[in-house]
Amino acid sequence: MPDPTCPCGSQLNRKACCIPLLEGGSVAETAEQLMRSRFTAFVLEDVDYLLATHHRSKHSPTERQQLTETLKQHRWLSLDVVRSIRGGKNNDNGTVEFIARYTDGKQLEQLHECSSFIKENGRWFYLSGNFLNTPIKFPGRNESCWCGSGKKYKRCHG
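^ that's the sequence the OP posted. Answer follows.
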């Protein structure tokens, strides 16, 4: 059976996409690649990777505990990258706008954010994010549900 598709939305096999980053076998070459790998880390509840890729200037004493609690409360479903500004292999900073969908219990929610990234010593780090208040666009009744169940939205969370 083939390995599953990566949760980051790239449509690639997870072992060819984000897993090498999470396992430390490679580093993100772009800000968008880091952002996608961080989403995958949220899906897989990889607190260590999230901490390691969060810029040290932004760490807090309770960060691990807060992340752990957040991961227990949410199930991350899908990611759409809206746009990337700079953040390429030859840049030292960049911004990625994205929409991440998740459930908080049974309620479908979304996070629309413009995230800032910085590259230091050849490694990208998440710096901060600005939340954008946009209405949630739910799937149509006959479209696939965000949760990845393979069911139509109306038969799953609709």
